[in-house]
Amino acid sequence: MAEKIPLVFIPGTLCDGALWRHQSAHLSDIAEISVADHTRADSVEDIVGQILADAPPRFALAGLSMGGYLALGIMRRAPERVSKLCLFDTSARPETPEARARREDLIRLVQRGTFKGVTQRMLPLFIHPDRLSDDLLCRAIMQMGERVGAEVYLRQQLANMGRPDSRAMLPSIRCPTLVACGRQDKLTPLELSEEIAASIPKAVLVVIEDCAHLPTMERPQAATALMRYWLLGD
């Protein structure tokens, strides 16, 4: 039997291992899977250092949204340790002033004690309109936010706001790379994934139809199938 591929998943903001539940269950025959802890620090560099300290010596790496920012941070610091890279619904760009202002408003709300995690009102930003009636999916997303909690959310927002511009380093990424994005993603629109894929020499771009920001939960079978091809490919 072939040796399993070490695979590290990095969740997004307000997400935990449940983001990768289907992939963890259905890729376990070919991968030795771990979910990175991205909850302990408030800067990309510090979180990256903690993830690398916990990770195997060499591993395949997959990140979604904030997890993608952190995955690119790992590629800056230790590209020799990453055998394959997978980026879901993310951006290589730094924070825009408009997005920073929105995050600062959210931080102030949380500091006043009004943290509500992912609410019903926020769900249309995360998932495709057709999935808003899927109670199991909506509940799973909201429960993730509750588990992550206010203190971690504040740290994650600070890290997101302070992330560096990763665009200049993309052409230096040499490992096989899968870039995937939901067609209807409002938070990190498709053009951001197109930009990443166009800049990485060995990147393949896949658009997941009828899907928004969380393909691994919205279209888990499609996301898992893509990742299987990615893991087993050259």
What is the CATH architecture descriptor?
Answer: 3-Layer(aba) Sandwich
Largest sheet, spatial ordering of strands: 2-1-3-4-5-6
Q: Which fold name is given in CATH as the topology?
A: Rossmann fold
Major β-sheet annotation:
6 strands, parallel
Number of E strands: 6
What is the rounded distance between the termini? 18 Å
Using the alpha-carbon principal axes, give the shape: globular
Number of domains: 1
User: What amount of the residues lies in strands?
Assistant: 15-25%
CATH superfamily: Alpha/Beta hydrolase fold, catalytic domain
- Would you identify the regions where 5 or more consecutive residues have pLDDT less than 50? none
Rounded to an integer, what's the Rg over CA atoms? 16 Å
What is the residue-mean pLDDT, rounded to a whole number? 95
Count of helix runs: 9
The residue fraction in helices comes out at: 40-55%
Which CATH top level class fits?
Alpha Beta
Write structural notes for this entry.
The longest helix has 27 residues, at 135-161. This protein has a six-stranded parallel β-sheet with strand order 2-1-3-4-5-6, sandwiched between helices. It has helices spanning 21-26, 44-54, 66-77, 97-111, 123-126, 135-161, 190-199, 215-218, 220-232; strands spanning 5-10, 31-35, 59-64, 82-88, 177-182, 203-208. With 234 residues, the protein is α/β, with parallel strands linked by helices. The chain has one domain (5-95, 158-232): Rossmann fold. The radius of gyration is 16 Å and the shape is globular. Helices cover 44% and strands 15% of the residues.
